[in-house]
Amino acid sequence: MTEPPGRRERKKAATRQKIADTALRLFLERGYDAVGIRDVAAEADVAVTTVFAHFASKEALVFERDQDFEQRLTRAVTDRPPHEPLIPALHREVQALVRHCTAEGSAPVRRMIEGSPALREYEESMSLRHAQALAAALAADPHLSRSATACGATARFTIDAYAMACRADDPRATVNEVFQMIEAAWEATAP
């Protein structure tokens, strides 16, 4: 059982969330390119160094759930019960993640990302990193017995299922359709 976070960790998390919320509000009000890190720091009432202590770049402020996303996908592999098949576990987790990107109020954020070359580039590099982490988790599981190629392709398709669903008219149906293909490909690579 994990212990609840201490006061210091709670304060850090609250500061991080305050910075992210402030940045997103400013970006949506003024436009992503019109807002600088100094603007975010001033509005959040923190030092610029505090912003950078929590976020590596301006782009990271938009994707503040980045690490949680990656951890949730890798935990769908590593924390699933031994008898649970892999693909349904990933499918369920992607459906849950898609609910966040399609929640009420998410459309302006998606438009902002689509309208910014810097944010699109950051999102793509983030997706590649997530796919690498997921592929490593798949390859490390001794019960899966798949090649590095199969693990890498499955990971990439899983990340792409999420990205496609976030842009689709029917996100749930998109995830279901892509996961039918992922399941078929995964089964085709069985030893």
Automatic annotation (TrEMBL):
Q: Which species expresses this protein natively?
A: Streptomyces noboritoensis
For this protein, the DNA-binding region equals 36-55
Q: Does the keyword DNA-binding apply?
A: yes
Matching entries from InterPro entries are given as: Homeodomain-like_sf, HTH-type_TetR-like_transc_reg, HTH_TetR
PANTHER family named among the record's database cross-references:
HTH-TYPE TRANSCRIPTIONAL REGULATOR BETI (PTHR30055:SF234), HTH-TYPE TRANSCRIPTIONAL REGULATOR RUTR (PTHR30055)
Boundaries of every HTH tetR-type domain copy: 13-73
User: What protein name is recorded for this chain?
Assistant: TetR/AcrR family transcriptional regulator
Question: What are the record keywords, sorted?
Answer: DNA-binding, Transcription, Transcription regulation
